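Sequence, structure tokens reproduced for reference:
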Amino acid sequence: MHAALRRRPARLLPALVAAAGLLTACGGGDGSSKADGPPAKVTVTPAGGTKAAKLGSAISVRATGGKLTSVDVKADKGGKVGGRLSDDGTSWTADGKVRPGATYTVRTETTSDQGRKATATSVFTTEGADKVNKLTNRPNGGETVGTGMPVSILFDHPIAEDQRAEIEKALKVTSQPEVTGAWGWVKDYSGKDRIDWRPKDYWPSGTKVSVKGALSGINSGDAGGWFVRDYDFDFTVGADRRAVIDVPGHRLTMYEDGKSVGSVTGSAGSPQDPTRGGVHTVRSKNAAETMDSSTIGYGDQWMLDSQWVTHLTASGTFLHSAPWNKSIGVVNNSHGCFGMTTADAKKVYDFLTIGSTVEVKGTSNPNKTDVGNGLEVWQETWEQWQQRSALS
């Protein structure tokens, strides 16, 4: 009995030594397994080091002698970077380009051709930008708009002609249901560069729209500078509400889902200042506003308080109350606006939403409103609009 007890440890010792050897083989201190052969070689571009990566560089990772099983790229400004792994698993390419003045950390996991697993980390920084370009988007994120609303992006600084195609490629509009549309470059009434996306036909009511701009790291030109962030916003298309103005008949008729839901009388522009024709898009609204003649080129001729003002063009074509006009519905005598009684102006104001369309018929004004003078994308045919694309 005592002899058996003394022999038992001697029999267990080889098994314990073998187990210790297996644990060592399962994981090395350098982050790689101890399978035969060296780990896969990982090359990260831009490379880490003391020299900052040039602006406009693309991030890529390549494995030689094995495959990439995981690639995680994060920037200290902007967070995780998306990308695509090649079908054969040997390379990974980031979406977009590096942003200015940022530090990137690239962590990879690989498996060599002999089955050796390894991890690696690479860190690099990017050059700063002397000038930064930003944008203002319409609609605002989460907004509900009318069926004629374009996606409108206004840039802080100029966009060089030779950079427009790259910027346009980085902008994506998706919708549910899917809607055909196109980007077009526009000179805004303010003088700034703008790019709008309009559907071929009006949006279907209820459409959910998503807009993404992978602009980070794209150069807009010497005068514009670099983009330093991506953009992402959504909006919803609301009820199909439109209005039609019959200039000779002094009448505005409201339509919902193609059916007339009421009309009001009013006074359009005089023969000397006829109201602008075609299809306009409601760009903004204001419950109370002072009509200042100096803002539309008439000096200090009048300063009148108005209510329920619906803005069509940036140059001053409005739908509004005109309590001073004693000939509403009888004579067209305005300077281009459509004036109504205060009660009727409120009906129109409440009915139309930002992005609703207002078609002016029967005007003697032969001039087409420039697209940048508001959200005037429906002043052009679909064929004309497509020619505004830098990719056409």
